[in-house]
Amino acid sequence: MTKAPASVAAKLASTAAGGVVRVLLLITALFWLLPAVGLLLSSFLSSTDLNSGGWWQALSAPSRLTAENYTALFSNEAVTRSLLSTVLITVPATLLVLVLGSFAGYAFAWMEFPGRDGLFLVVVGLLVVPVQVALIPVSHLFGSVGLFETTAGVVLFHTAFGLPFAIFLLRNFFAQIPRELLEAARLDGAGETRLFAQVVLPLGGPAIASLGIFQFLWVWNDMLVALVFADSSNPPITVALQQQVRQFGNNIDVLAPGAFISMVIPLIVFFAFQRQFVSGVMAGAVK
Fold this sequence. Notes:
mainly alpha, single chain, MetI-like fold
């Protein structure tokens, strides 16, 4: 049975509806970007200009924009050290979660061992445990072993709380790999190590990339764990900016560019891997 062609009125209504949706999405995107644009323009305005008016004055007087704020930022030793400290925390915490989560996800998906299903239920249960519950006991533990106020302590905390989600996501993704493909590799003489490295990891690239984005964003933007466990003399950028507010109430020439750099780096990471992020999340959510 052939479908009747759509009338002119129906085509116009469909086009108008699509146009309305595009306009609404564009307006939403503009509102979402407005704080970021305001922060960017504020980072190029002097403290005098910002105190006399808002960031929107840069739109009418672009000549007021200056790069002196970024010069002041990178000459501020506390902020530059905090950026390095943030990198030294975020990169190891992300890599450890990816490596350990990949091993555990493969084991839960394709290896038989006693108590596998029970252990996986424990992992799923750990997903709902809030970070705040562990702050005091972990503080006592780190204090007794000498990890309190150290970079290693912050990395271990983020790794421990990132692993449940990592194992859950990667196990669901790896379980969707056709069993026939793995059996064929085993018949060709591949052991578990070779099977994991040459078959599972290449196929799991989207899920691993999406997990890396999740972990990177969480650790980079974290402030609570850094306030409790990080070295107070060399904190991550989130804590360093908060300390700048506390010490210099009007230090906007450092705060604005520092906050923008702190925001733009995770955005660059996200947009660089957004395709893998979407495909990995969708694939890990269907099974």
